[in-house]
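retry 2 of 3: previous attempt timed out while embedding magnesium ion. Reduced batch size to 1 and resubmitted. Inputs unchanged:
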Amino acid sequence: MFKRLSSKLIVTLFALLLLMSASFIGFALWKTPMFLQELNQRLNLELADNIVKEKNLMINTQVNHEAMQSVFMGLMLVNPIIEVYLVDTQGGLLAYSAPKGVVKRQTIDLVPVQQFLSKEQHFPVLGNDPRDLSRDKVFSAAAIYDKQNLQGYLYIVLGGQAYDSVVELLQSSYMLRIWISAVIVSLLVALLAGFMMFRHITRRVHQLAKSMEKFKQSDFQHSIELPDRFNGRSGDEIDQLGSTFHEMSERIIHQVKLLQNNDTSRREMVANVSHDLRTPLASLQGYLETLKLKVDQLSDEQRQDYIDIAYKHSKRLRKLIAELFELSTLENQDAPLHYESFSMSELVQDVSQKFRLEAENKGLVLCTAISAQPAFVRADIGLIHRVLENLIENAIKYTPAGGKVSVSLLISDQTITTQITNTGQGIAAEDIPHIFDRFYRVEKHRNLDGTGLGLAIAQRIMQLHNSRIEVQSRTNLGTTFSFPLLHSVS
Ligand SMILES: Nc1ncnc2c1ncn2[C@@H]1O[C@H](COP(=O)(O)OP(=O)(O)OP(=O)(O)O)[C@@H](O)[C@H]1O
Ligand SMILES: [Mg+2]
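retry 2 succeeded.
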C-alpha cells in the first residue's frame, strides 16, 4: 500500500503535522501559565494601592491591627486565592493572616517589589511567596507613607495555593481538550487536502512509470505513449521528464534497429567473405594438387595453363583480402585523413594515363576533357586517387569493345565535380540503389573478375570527405559516376 509515491508523501505529511501539533501543544502548555500570571498581575495592578489609599494600615511605624484585620477579612471573603502581608522597609513581615506554621519565611526580597513599583517593569514580576520557599509568585504591592516617610509595604500575593491547583486543572483539562480537538480537526482537513493534492501531482508520475514499464515489456520496440496530460502545457519537471523519456525511447528504438541491421549485414558480410575466399582458394588448391599429382602426365602447355589459373586465383584472393582490409580501415570512425591541397586536373591526367593502355587493349577510347582553369581541391590525395582508380577501372571493365570512356571536370564557383562516363548498356534502375553495397555485383557481370567492394570503398572515401558519389545511368545510353569536392582556398 505504501509503495505508491502519493502514499509515501501522505505518510510524511501526517508525520510532519503530528510533530508540528505536538510542538504547538507543548509550547502552549509551557507558556500558558506565564500568560495567566501576567494577566492576573495586570488586572490587580492597583489592588494594593487602592487598599493603602483606603485604609490607614500603619500609624507611626506601628501596625494598625484593626485596619489590617478588616482588610484580611474583606479580601479573604471576596477572593480566597490572594494572601495579604504587611511588610516593613527591610522586607520583614509585620502582619499577615494565616494558620500557624503555614508561613515559612519572615522576610521577603524587596527588589521585585521596587521593580513592580517603578512601573517600568516587564510583566509578570515574580516575588517571594512567604508560604512557599521553592517558588515565586505574582503579586500586587504598594508603599505605605506617613507624611512623606516610608513606613512599609502592603504585599499581596495573587493566586496563592488555591490558584496553583486551578492552573494545573486548566492544563490537564479544558484548554488541553480544546487544543487537542483543534489539532485533530486541522490534521484531518490537512490530510484530506494533502491526499487530493498529492494524488493529482503524482498521477502523471504514476502514468509515466506505467508507460515506461510498457516500453520495457515491448522489448524496446514501441515508443512510449504518453497520456494527454503530458501535453507540455504545465511545463513542469514531470512534463520535461515525460518528453525526455519519449525522446529517449525513440532514440533507443532507432539504436536497437540500427544494431539489428548492423548485425544482419555483418552476418551477410561474413557469409559473403567466406564464400568469396573459399571459391578461389578451392580452385587454387585444386589446380596445385593436380599439378603435384600429375606433373609427369601433363603436357607443357597444360602445366602452363594450370599455373596461370592458380596464379589468377591467388591474385584474386590477394585483391579481396586487401580490399576487405581497406574497407574495414575506412569504416573505422576515426580513420585519419591526410588533407592537402592538390590539382585535381593533374591527378585525373595521371590516373587516366595509367589506364590508357588497358583501355586501348580492350578496344576502347579513353579521353580526358580537362580545361586549363586551375582546379585545386583540399582532400586526401591518396584516397581520391583510389576513388578515381576504382571508377575508371569499372568504366573500362563494364564498357563493351568499341565503346568510349571519358573523364571530365566541371568547375563551378564552389566545387569541382569529377565525372567518369562510359558508353554501354548502363545499369538497370533496380540495381542502382544496391551497387554501393558491399559485395553487390550486377547479375550479368558476375562472370567477370571482381569482388563487389570497389564502389563501397569509393563511396566510403567520399563520405569521409563529406561528399558522395552520384550515379546516372540510362539503358543503352551509358553510365556517369560523379563526385564533387570543394575548391581549396589556395
Ligand atoms: N561503369 C559501370 N557501368 C556498368 N555497371 C557498373 C559500372 N560500375 C559498376 N557497375 C556495376 O556495379 C557493380 C559493383 O561495382 P564494384 O566496383 O563495387 O564491384 P566490382 O567492379 O564488381 O568488383 P571490384 O571490387 O573488383 O571493383 C559491378 O559489379 C557492376 O555490375
Ligand atoms: Mg569495381
